[in-house]
């Protein structure tokens, strides 16, 4: 780790990337706990259970999943061809609008409008980790990438802790105003200080008519996505990780999407309890990602870390589903110290199995596969959550949807155990051959 500080260029690039992202994540997270109370009070005044809010949340996630399947691979590929900085600026700028609407008014109409606008925001925001992982791969040597991804996710967790501290003590009326100011800061800072790590290829079609130019762009995007799919499918490691992350997101996306609504309906939790639980998760995540993962990974490898985190995630979902007292969610939240290692370990595995010119394409395509899970997850989780929280439940288990989610995560663990460590440092032969075709969009 000391070698990082000797390379001033790496430190400077990382600071100018991670500082605005830290503020962005913090602004996003601080609205999470109060958003449940705002939507419930606006859509179902006087009630603790709000099927309309849960359905609206599920519909939003399904719609986002549909668009993410196409958008994230394209955005990841565009970051390879046109640079990381323009994609970062577009991504972090979109969050300003939906929360500005809620800062202006929290009536039913504005809540619906913010959900609609937030769909666009979430589609673009889904590419943040993809582009950030590609940026880190540009900047860091191979032996520092796992630690770099760990620090990225550790700062992500730290931003959540600070955000929930603010959400715990700030009056609810001011949270959206503060978050909007923080959202505006991010693109301004990136415009001034973030350095580009990709040199865009020179364009040779500047004189083409607009119609031909548009057709050429569509054709190039199709060819590039086909190339990205070939990169992933030709690599046993990347193909296996795709299945791991698909089933992981199939379960955990449903848990994350409905958890706070479930806790409010089952145990009467409010903004303060939400913030406390999220702080427990965040504090444990900081310790594991900033200190634990960089120390453990060189000893046991990314595969062992990934399998351990997936096992913890399955137990995490199961305990929430069987929670029998208000203290159980607090205990279960402590498992977040291990759960959060899924992302950095999978980012490291994807990066090591991809060539230097395909970082954005591989990360983007696999995140696109995850988006299919984001599309499918609400279809089951939203229905099951509403059913078992209602008086018409087939049997008394309010968290049955979380029990089902734990089985999906268990399937991802089975695929993770099939990863072959001897292949993690090898690029696939097809990838090496097709790497000559990488400048398809150039």
Automatic annotation (TrEMBL):
Keywords: Membrane, Signal, Transmembrane, Transmembrane helix, Transport
Membrane topology: Multi-pass membrane protein
Transmembrane helix recorded as keyword: yes
Residues that span the membrane, as ranges: 87-104, 116-137, 149-167, 174-195, 277-297, 304-324, 362-380, 400-419
GO CC list: membrane
SUPFAM superfamilies per record: MFS general substrate transporter
CDD domains: MFS_SLC46_TetA_like (cd17330)
Record's keyword annotation contains Transmembrane helix: yes
Signal peptide: 1-33
Domain of life according to the entry: Eukaryota
Localization, UniProt: Membrane
Pfam families: MFS_1
PANTHER family hit by this protein: MAJOR FACILITATOR SUPERFAMILY DOMAIN-CONTAINING PROTEIN 10, OS11G0151500 PROTEIN
Family note: Belongs to the major facilitator superfamily. Phosphate:H(+) symporter (TC 2.A.1.9) family.
Protein name: Major facilitator superfamily (MFS) profile domain-containing protein
Taxonomic source organism: Cinchona calisaya
Lineage, uppermost ranks: Eukaryota, Viridiplantae, Streptophyta, Embryophyta, Tracheophyta
């Amino acid at each position: 780790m000391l070698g990082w500080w000797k390379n001033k260029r790496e430190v400077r690039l990382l600071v100018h990337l991670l500082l605005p992202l830290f503020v962005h994540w913090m602004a996003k997270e601080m609205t999470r706990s109060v958003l449940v109370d705002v939507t419930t009070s606006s859509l179902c005044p006087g009630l603790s259970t709000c099927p309309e809010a849960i359905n609206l949340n599920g519909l939003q996630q399904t719609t986002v999943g549909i668009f993410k399947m196409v958008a994230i691979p394209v955005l990841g590929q565009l970051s390879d061809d046109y640079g990381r900085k323009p994609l970062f600026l577009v991504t972090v700028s979109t969050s300003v609008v939906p929360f500005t609407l809620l800062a202006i008014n929290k009536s039913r109409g504005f809540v619906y409008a913010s959900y609609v606008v937030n769909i666009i925001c979430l589609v673009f925001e889904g590419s943040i980790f993809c582009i950030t992982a590609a940026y880190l791969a540009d900047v860091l040597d191979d032996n520092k990438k796992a630690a770099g991804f760990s620090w990225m996710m550790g700062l992500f967790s730290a931003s959540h802790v600070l955000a929930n501290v603010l959400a715990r003590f700030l009056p609810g009326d001011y949270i959206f105003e503060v978050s909007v100011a923080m959202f505006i800061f991010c693109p301004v800072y990136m415009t001034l200080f973030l350095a580009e790590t990709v040199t865009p290829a020179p364009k040779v079609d500047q004189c083409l008519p607009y119609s031909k130019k548009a057709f050429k762009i569509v054709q190039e995007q199709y060819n590039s996505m086909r190339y990205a799919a070939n990169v992933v499918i030709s690599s046993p490691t990347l193909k296996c990780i795709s299945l791991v992350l698909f089933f992981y997101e199939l379960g955990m996306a449903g848990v994350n999407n409905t958890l706070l609504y479930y806790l409010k309906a089952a145990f009467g939790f409010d903004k303060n309890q939400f913030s406390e639980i999220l702080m427990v998760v965040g504090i444990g995540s900081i310790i594991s990602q900033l200190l634990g993962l960089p120390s453990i990974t060189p000893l046991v490898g990314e595969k062992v870390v990934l399998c351990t985190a997936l096992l913890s995630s399955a137990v995490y979902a199961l305990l929430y589903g069987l929670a029998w007292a208000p203290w159980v969610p607090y205990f279960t939240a402590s498992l977040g110290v291990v759960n959060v290692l899924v992302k950095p370990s999978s980012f490291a595995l994807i990066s090591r199995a991809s060539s230097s010119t395909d970082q954005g394409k591989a990360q983007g395509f696999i995140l696109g596969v995850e988006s299919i899970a984001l599309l499918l997850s609400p279809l089951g989780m939203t229905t099951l959550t509403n059913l078992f929280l209602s008086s018409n439940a087939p049997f008394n288990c309010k968290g049955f949807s979380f029990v089902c989610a734990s089985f999906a995560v268990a399937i991802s663990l089975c695929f993770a155990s099939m990863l072959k460590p001897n292949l993690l440092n090898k690029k696939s032969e097809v990838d090496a051959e097709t790497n000559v075709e990488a400048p398809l969009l150039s």
